[in-house]
Design a protein that fits this description.
10 helices, 239 residues, 2 domains, alpha+beta, four-stranded antiparallel sheet, disordered N terminus
């Protein structure tokens, strides 16, 4: 089976349509303007205070903006106990996670359709590892700690990651999936690719962790990756 390219199928067209629709009303324009003018990420309550909107309304419209690739969410860690605060920031047009996400998805699907493998998990893992390696190698994170670099990369791709560290292992909780519809239809391929993405990035960055397992949709909007310590630090440490 051959996947033919047609300009009308260009995912950038879909992204631009989604962005135009997201900004069709003043509410989302106000939220995006507030985030672009902020010195740092803001949570929903802070945005409600800035725009005069109800916090529930703010959360709804932030999800629409996120789906259009205009904003990203992340979880801010604090020393005290309790659920980390979810904060939002505007995405620069040149680094929008949606573009990288569509490219990744196109590569996964094209390779899968061309080879028609009997074991989609193996194919997804191989493609994901190669993509994670390339993404990590191309990023400039100004000396940020290794795991923080992976978290930033996943945030830009639209996964809304949260790190939960424990003695036995580190959990990486992914609160959104940029390919949810595709992953639901074909979880063996897509979820394996996401696990491979993390493995390739961790190895390239040089983090002494390996992604051993990805539990998809343990909650309606939550997947959990399990990271185990390893004695091998990866390529960066070897250079």
């Amino acid at each position: 089976m051959v996947l033919m390219y047609n300009q009308s199928m260009d995912p950038r067209d879909g992204r631009e349509v989604a962005a135009h629709r997201a900004l069709a009303g003043w509410t989302r324009v106000a939220l995006l303007t507030a985030l672009r003018g902020a010195t740092g990420p803001l949570d929903a309550r802070e945005l409600a205070g800035v725009t005069g909107l109800h916090v529930s309304t703010v959360r709804f419209h932030l999800e629409v903006l996120a789906h259009a690739g205009l904003v990203l969410s992340e979880f801010e860690h604090r020393p005290r106990r309790g659920r980390p605060r979810q904060v939002w920031r505007a995405v620069a047009k040149a680094t929008a996670g949606t573009e990288g996400g569509y490219r990744m998805l196109a590569e996964i699907l094209s390779d899968y359709l061309e080879t028609g493998p009997a074991e989609p998990e193996a194919v997804g893992m191989e493609i994901g590892e190669a993509w994670g390696t390339r993404l990590a190698r191309s990023r400039d994170d100004d000396g940020a700690p290794g795991l923080a670099r992976l978290v930033a990369m996943l945030a830009e791709l639209g996964f809304s990651p949260e790190v939960v560290e424990a003695t036995a292992e580190t959990e990486l909780r992914l609160h959104s999936c940029p390919f949810l519809a595709v992953a639901t239809a074909n979880p063996r391929l897509v979820c394996s690719a996401h696990l491979g993405l993390m493995r390739g990035a961790l190895t390239e960055i040089g983090v002494p962790l390996v992604a051993t397992q990805l539990d998809p949709l343990v909650e309606p909007s939550l997947c959990v990756a399990h990271l185990q310590k390893t004695a091998v630090a990866g390529r960066k440490a070897e250079r």
